[in-house]
Predict the 3D structure of the following.
Amino acid sequence: MSELTATPILEAPRAEGSNDQTMVLNMGPQHPSTHGVLRLVLEIDGEVVVRLYPEIGYLPTGIEKTCEAKFYQQVVPLTDRIDYLSPMHNNLCYCLAVEKLLELPIPDKAQWMRVLLSELTRLNSHLVWLGTHAMDIGALTVFLYTFREREDILRIFELVAGQRMMTSYFRIGGLSMEPPLDFFDRVKAFMKTFPEKIDEYANLLTGNPIFVNRLQNVGHLSAADAIALGVTGPPLRASGVDFDLRRDMPYSSYEKFDFKVPTSDRCDVWGRYLVRLEEMKESVKIINQALAGMPEGPVKADAPKIVLPDREKMKTQMESLIHHFKIVTEGFAVPAGEVYQGIESSRGQMGYYVVSDGTAKPYRVHMRNPSFATLQAVETMCQGRMLADVVAVIGSIDVVLGEIDR
Amino acid sequence: MSVTLADKASVLREKGDHPAVAALVGWKPEALADARWDREELTLTIRLEDIQGAGVAVQQAGFNFLEDVTAVDWFPATPRFQVSYHVLSHKFKERIRLRVLVDGDSPSLDTITSVWPSANYYEREIFDLFGVRFDGHPNLRRIMMPEEWPGHPLRKDYPVEGYR
């Protein structure tokens, strides 16, 4: 065991030159507006925040360590548990990384289905964000409305994957199975009603003077600070940086879709709200394009030693039975190497770094999770502002503690 | 199959005009210990003592966004640890990997928080889970495990299951 630099937490956040005027206040880990087990240690002067110190580590699950003891395919269900509000993004990012290691081409239909479900996941996550963010500010009604629509999305997930939240529907080499027959009709029906629901939320919030005053000019983060502090996703785009991995470094055939990347120059919580609302409208556009142009064909790659065979084939063909047995008992070897795959998740840039030593288990899996880096910027956004603004700022970066602690 | 350039000489020959490679060679040719182009990804191995300067060099070359820092434990091989930095360029829409190899006994290297402040949490995470120290880090404390936790969980000699 190496020696540790243990600093008592209450001594750590005192700012230089601070005097007895300031007071150290503990917020969390069981605070309703910290969306999980985030603990903030604040040094406040009256009601003004002098320093803010996020203390995380109340939820580590050791997923990165567990991955090293599993076959490549067995890691997929673990990735769901990291960011439980956007499980499909985690599945997608991990699968793309391993497929890059294997240099495995994926059929078109699987790629388009992945895009479609990724965007549904984004809607799902943004709906939770909108509901809880508004609830933190004091507008409880919106929460009930957004969870009504989220329920529809979760039902679609259940239809397609058998699970509402921990979907594990994307597999290495494609999808776990064909989508059910009424899947596209259900998504189409949802897409018909959903766009007016976004206007309904906006109607409740955008013109609401209390909501507007609580959000405007709060949590200022300049573009330079955002880049220096590793902020990605909607908070970065709300600081005026026009960068989105879906458009700029496309993956899973996103280059075939036509959509805009909403940005804002406001650099505040209000800007992040506007950007996310616009993003929901763009997601609807992408889903409609995916529904209209969904290619025909298989949803699994033609790689019998990697992808599990169909049930029917397994029961009638000797070779498929052998492949099935080998994949389940021994996994499949992945060529040695290291890859990093980034995708744009609901919260920002997610990345999976997978290192293989040529065996059937990953040598190292590391996740770059957007919330983890974005949390570093909270102090910059809150310094010199009122204590009540901290709640608005935490809501605006949309933290998920599951992906911070992993 | 994509093209693989396995050593420094071939990367310098084929990718010599890549902005990050050119910046590093222009700054200090001996800082670049090794290079590899594999699966459309560029990996540049930097000498241990030059990582801070290399960070500044690639940052000035347009690789402005530090996306991720992490480590790999190659136990029992030597040098034991590999620290990987993934740097993204908003301008070139491209990503590179800087890589530093760190010795196993009392592993330490310079922090890059002075170049990219966002490295703060990532370096704390590596310190916590691998026991690699970062010299000059402003707040090198455990970030996920409790302060009194024995050992570093992501090291390969730390068991996955059971008690120690």
Summary: Residues 108-137 of chain A form the longest helix (30 residues).
